[in-house]
């Protein structure tokens, strides 16, 4: 399954820019990959793991902006249509391999 995080954070002053950078860095440190600007994804092996990352994000919310999360199955993710552009190299490497759960 996948956890998608979509966010829109203001960057009007230095404080807001710092919060944006720190939130983005937090996502990357926790294994999220950029799907496109302000949309990050992470593979989760089960619902409990996804819920754990949701709790981590809830504890790291910036003071202003909009952040949304969506949990989808791998099959739903694979059905995503790309209308313009193409998969990044990083996304291709990760999504073209089958996930093995032990």
Per CATH, the architecture is 2-Layer Sandwich
Q: Label the structural class.
A: alpha+beta
- Number of E-state strands: 4
Arithmetic mean of pLDDT: 89
Short description:
This protein has 102 residues and is an alpha+beta fold. Helices cover 39% and strands 23% of the residues.
SSE blueprint:
Elements: E1 2-8, H1 14-29, E2 33-36, E3 39-43, H2 47-58, E4 66-72, H3 74-78, H4 89-95
Explained architecture:
- This protein is α+β, with helices and mostly antiparallel strands.
- Strands 2-3-1-4 form a 4-stranded antiparallel beta sheet.
- It has a single domain (2-95), classed as Alpha-Beta Plaits.
- It has helices at 14-29, 47-58, 74-78, 89-95; strands at residues 2-8, 33-36, 39-43, 66-72.
- The protein is globular.
Defining traits:
single chain; alpha+beta; four-stranded antiparallel beta sheet; 102 residues; Alpha-Beta Plaits
């Amino acid at each position: 399954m996948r956890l998608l995080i979509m966010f829109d954070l203001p960057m009007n002053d230095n404080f807001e820019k710092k919060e944006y950078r720190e939130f983005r860095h937090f996502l990357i440190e926790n294994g999220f990959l950029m799907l496109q600007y302000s949309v990050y994804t992470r593979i989760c092996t089960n619902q409990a793991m996804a819920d754990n990352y949701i709790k981590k994000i809830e504890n790291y919310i910036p003071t202003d902006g909009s952040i949304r999360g969506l949990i989808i199955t791998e099959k739903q993710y694979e059905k995503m249509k790309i209308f313009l552009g193409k998969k990044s190299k990083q996304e291709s490497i990760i999504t073209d391999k089958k996930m093995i759960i032990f």
